[in-house]
């Protein structure tokens, strides 16, 4: 007769199984933490060391005979630790996935690219696309489109390519049957589902290609030490941020990690600057977005003479979703006003009206405040101040205790409404650097309100349409931007400071004085 194993044997086996699960969860979570890099290494190493010691203590306790109550407490403690570590690993992995989706520049990751057709078209295989027209995006997702085109050309013969700047237009082409199919990457497919009504229910995926992403190209910047700039573009309408349309909100963020300071530069949408897409002929800044955000970046770099290292583009949907997701924001509204709703409806029942003073705004109210500019004397300058107040309020909410509890929800929606060319690895490095120091940040505002308006022709509109009311920058405004960047980059010290009363800008970088640039002091009929 086989000898029965003692009860202690089974108790120890159960304890070791608990510890095995704890060990596996810990290894997976800390692998994510070390490879992602968003947490400071010293934090991760310290946490790993503490958990290793706890594991060894728990292992030794499992080898000893303990009272029943102690065994129960030990197991509950192991379960609690496993849940805490697993939850941390889950959120780190989710953060990594979110950044990769937003940045479109995750080195080593894989992008899925879909070939989609109109539902009910009768096309369900690539062979049926022979002799058909296929749409490709030539805007911010052009690299993925080019990859898919290579694959399709190798598999399907005699197709006609049709290029568009954004997926909203390609989707419209599909419905109008000017294309029979188009290719779209996975992140933009998800974005289109969130931003285009009926998108998911009206298309079918007939092929999926997988593309391995190369290391992201871009400026060689240590974002934990070096000053860098970000151009923030807000679209003029609702919909996906990949649309190539007018840029209603234009901000340059000059980020100085050493000083923990951000200069937030507001640029008027009607700013009169040379448009790169029109051979640097003068145009409204807002119109540069019609030829893609890269065109806006090139145009701004040329005008101010400073590099724009990264960009981020958001749609009006994002402001509503972000503000509502974080539970609203507290803003000091500058004036009493009424504004159209998010659908641009001026019906009495749709108007959004706010009173002057400090108040709590939801997403739609924040959007209305960021849009309003029609009140006389408030105008575009007032709207730019409002946009800066809203951005500051969002930042303040996010770093509050209440805001931190909403981060998980925010990560769920961010990839659908924000695109950026800042690599995920750079974002992680920046966050890690700030967590490592934990110093407060300051934000300064630079606004453009010393120029003048004038009626002039713009490059992107036919002269037969007449003149447009444009904003001419003052030279002082441009100097302010250039000097802010130069001071942040050089970490200006008072002992190296010189001053010339006869020429205030003698020892500062020169501004662009190309013959086609028109400053406020050159206006013939200023308004």
List keywords for this structure.
about 525 residues; alpha+beta; D-Maltodextrin-Binding Protein, domain 2; Aminopeptidase; 15 helices; 19 strands; globular; LytR/CpsA/Psr_CW_biosynth; transmembrane; membrane; Transcriptional regulator
Question: Could you walk me through the main structural features you see in this protein, from its secondary elements to its overall organization?
Answer:
Strand 2, helix 4 (142-155) and strand 3 form a beta-alpha-beta unit. The chain has 4 domains: 12-102; 109-213, D-Maltodextrin-Binding Protein, domain 2, CATH 3.40.190.10; 221-315 and 417-526, 3-Layer(aba) Sandwich (Aminopeptidase); 316-400, LCP protein (Aminopeptidase), CATH 3.40.630. 42% of the residues lie in helices and 20% in strands. It starts with 6 loop residues before the first helix and ends in a 37-residue tail after the last helix. The model has no long low-confidence stretch (mean pLDDT 86). A 6-stranded mixed β-sheet has the order 16-11-6-7-8-17, with helices on both faces. A 5-stranded mixed β-sheet has the order 3-2-4-1-5, sandwiched between helices. Strands 9-10 form a two-stranded antiparallel ribbon. Helix 9 (316-325) packs antiparallel against helix 13. With 527 residues, it is α+β, with helices and mostly antiparallel strands. It contains 15 helices and 19 strands.
């Amino acid at each position: 007769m086989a000898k029965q194993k003692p009860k202690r044997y089974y108790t120890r086996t159960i304890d070791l199984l608990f510890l095995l699960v704890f060990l596996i969860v810990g290894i997976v979570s800390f692998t994510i933490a070390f490879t992602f890099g968003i947490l400071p290494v010293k934090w991760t190493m310290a946490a790993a060391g503490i958990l290793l010691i706890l594991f060894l203590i728990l292992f030794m306790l499992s080898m000893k005979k303990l009272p029943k109550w102690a065994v129960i407490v030990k197991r509950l403690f192991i379960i609690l630790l496993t849940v805490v570590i697993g939850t941390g690993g889950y959120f780190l992995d989710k953060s990594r996935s979110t950044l990769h989706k937003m940045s479109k520049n995750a080195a080593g990751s894989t992008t899925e690219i879909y070939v989609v057709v109109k539902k009910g078209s009768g096309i369900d295989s690539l062979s049926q696309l022979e002799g058909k027209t296929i749409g490709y995006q030539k805007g911010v997702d052009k690299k993925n489109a080019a990859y898919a085109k290579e694959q399709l050309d190798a598999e399907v013969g005699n197709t006609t390519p049709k290029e568009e700047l954004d997926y909203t237009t390609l989707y419209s082409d599909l419905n109008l049957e000017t294309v029979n199919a188009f290719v779209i990457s996975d992140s933009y497919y998800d974005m289109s589902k969130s931003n285009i009504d009926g998108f998911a229910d009206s298309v079918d995926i007939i092929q999926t290609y997988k593309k391995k992403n190369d290391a992201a190209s871009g400026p060689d910047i240590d974002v934990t030490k070096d000053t860098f700039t970000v151009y923030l573009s807000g679209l003029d309408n609702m919909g996906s941020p990949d649309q190539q349309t007018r840029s209603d909100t234009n901000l340059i963020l000059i980020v100085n990690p050493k000083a923990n300071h951000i200069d937030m530069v507001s640029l008027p949408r009607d700013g009169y600057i040379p448009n790169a897409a029109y051979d640097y002929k003068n145009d409204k800044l807002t119109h540069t977005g019609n030829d893609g955000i890269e065109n806006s970046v090139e145009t701004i770099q040329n005008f101010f003479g400073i590099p724009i290292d990264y960009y981020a583009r958001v749609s009006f949907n994002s402001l509503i979703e972000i503000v509502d997701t974080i539970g609203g924001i507290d803003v000091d509204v500058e004036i009493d006003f009424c504004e159209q709703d998010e659908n641009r409806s001026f019906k009495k029942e749709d108007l959004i009206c706010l009173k002057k003073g400090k108040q709590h705004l939801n997403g739609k109210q924040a959007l209305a405040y960021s849009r309003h500019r029609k009140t006389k004397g408030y105008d575009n300058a007032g709207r730019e101040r409002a946009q800066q107040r809203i951005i500051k309020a969002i930042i303040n909410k996010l770093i509050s205790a209440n805001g931190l509890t909403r981060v998980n929800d925010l990560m769920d929606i961010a990839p659908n409404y924000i695109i950026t060319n800042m690599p995920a690895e750079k974002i992680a490095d920046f966050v890690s650097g700030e967590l490592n120091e934990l110093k407060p940040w300051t934000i300064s505002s630079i606004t453009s309100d010393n120029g003048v308006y004038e009626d002039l022709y713009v490059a992107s509109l036919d002269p037969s349409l007449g003149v447009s009311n444009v904003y001419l920058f003052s030279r002082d405004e441009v100097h302010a931007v250039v000097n802010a960047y130069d001071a942040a980059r050089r970490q200006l010290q008072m002992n190296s400071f010189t001053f010339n009363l006869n020429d205030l800008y003698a020892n500062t970088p020169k501004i662009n004085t190309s013959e086609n640039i028109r400053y406020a002091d050159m206006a013939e009929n200023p308004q």
